[in-house]
Amino acid sequence: TYSVTLAQQVDGVVTQLAGPETFQVVDLGGGTLPIDDPAEALAFQRQAAELQRAVLGAVEVTGELKGRIKHLRLAIPDTPEADPAQLAELAAIESELNDLLVVLRGDRSKARRNEPVDPSLVGRINRVVEGQLGTTQPPTNTSRAGYEWASEAFAQTLEDLRAVDARLGALEDALESAGAPWTPGRFPEWPRGN
Fold first, then answer.
1. pTM exceeds 0.85
2. Confidence (pLDDT) at 138
């Protein structure tokens, strides 16, 4: 059973125009193989889609972190009070982030040279999700195994990504204390009354 409602949004105000109206969806029997538990198949599809959302979100986070690193690389030399070791720390953070990007997206450099590359998290979960598109059949054992592998690998990768973010945040805090020029990702400090 589904329901439909028609609404309009004008200047941020949503006004309901019609509905909700309910209707029944009837299976036309277009599947070639019988399915014992359609709810289980749907639950797996949703689970895989949620993991895909999280993995793709983590890739976006790495892009944001790389942007912060780029700005810090320029700010450190412009900060007289900065410790030269902070530039080395920034390089170490960037190296660790690049390693995580290889896990998430694969080794793009090797792939461009037509070298074999290990499967990436994005590639694995995309294959699982794509394998479920347009099918009413239960997930295969291969799909389930791919999901489990990606889920376990992503849990560790996400933990590592959070650790990189924390290290970068600590470096940004130290640079703020040293009077570094403002960079994206941090709030400037202002001791009111001085």
1. no
2. 83
